Amino acid sequence: MALSTSSLLSSHLPIRKTPKPPRLLSKTHHPTLSLRPRCSSSTATPASTSFDLRSYWTSLISVIESELDAALTIQYPENMYEAMRYSVFSGSAKRAPPIMCIASCELFGTPRAAALPTAAALEMVHAASHVHDDLPCMDAAPLRRGRPSTHAQYGVDVALLAGDALFPLGYTHVIAKTPPDLVPRDALLSVLIEIARTVGCNGMAAGQLLDLTGAAATGEVEVLQVLEKKFGGLAECSAVCGGMLAGAGEEDQAALRQYGRTVGVLYELVDDVLMESNGRAGKMRSNASVVRTLGMERTLELVEQLRDKAKNGLQRFGDQYGDQVLPLYSFVDYAVERGFVVEGGVEAGAVTAAATSSAAAS
Q1: Going from the N-terminus, what domains does the chain have, and what CATH number goes with each?
Q2: Which of 113, 146, 326, 346 has its CA 20 to 30 A from that of 283?
Q3: Which residues touch 340 (CB under 8 Å, ≥6 apart)?
């Protein structure tokens, strides 16, 4: 399903005076974006502050780690599998795509076991995209999450092949490990089509090409198009795949698409603000900077608009499913406020049997 960049910003959203550029708080090791209270927001939001997103998020990480560990056992050729594991198991990986997938599935009352294989596959795709983005011919990033990127650790040749191999491994994992008593085969086919669309020539690959050619630096529409394809698409895929696995109807799937795409771009906008304030540490070549293209004032204005848009899109679910939508609401505020630090990527040996038991009980 093709989606235009203009759909990110609806015409009914108000243009508000923008607060001063955010200050980066130094009291924690994770920079925080500080926005002034908004007076003109029309969004009726549940009390997402009553939902403990941190506990929900961290409780799922060990379950996702266990699933990934089982899927990425070392085989021949060992060097490539080691590079694949290195790419997936990073000590600061947040596991946001799989957690959004699980939260969307649980929204409809479906057990998380139905979504867990797809959630793991989405993290493999996420890791593979980072491997490729970091290559010298792409963003030329020597570091990823504070440690050598995969090509810096294993060489460009092995990194390229490891990234290539993670994509089909994810597809295979969805088919082989999704419980057939929970998810029908036609739903799995829809999920695989969705993932393939997301990473393909109209999705993440197109976004990376547009970034390389400097399209993002030409104007607002262009830079948002790059962010939508490079980042918003995977969040959209994560949200809608959870709905597909739960048997959501077309209207609910469309709402999840808009929500995920909006949150994905929102997160990157906030990242861009923080990175510009920190001298763009770790980025070598990417042109997809909204702050550089549009300025801090307009970027913060877009942050406000997208936060409202994401929450507005969830209202239909609040009416139907009550508190089950709170994880999705909380992701929106986390994307802007970064109120806590989430770290995953526990090495395989540290993944406990308790995580496996928790997955089986869900």
Answers
A1: 64-340 (1.10.600.10)
A2: 346
A3: 53, 54, 334
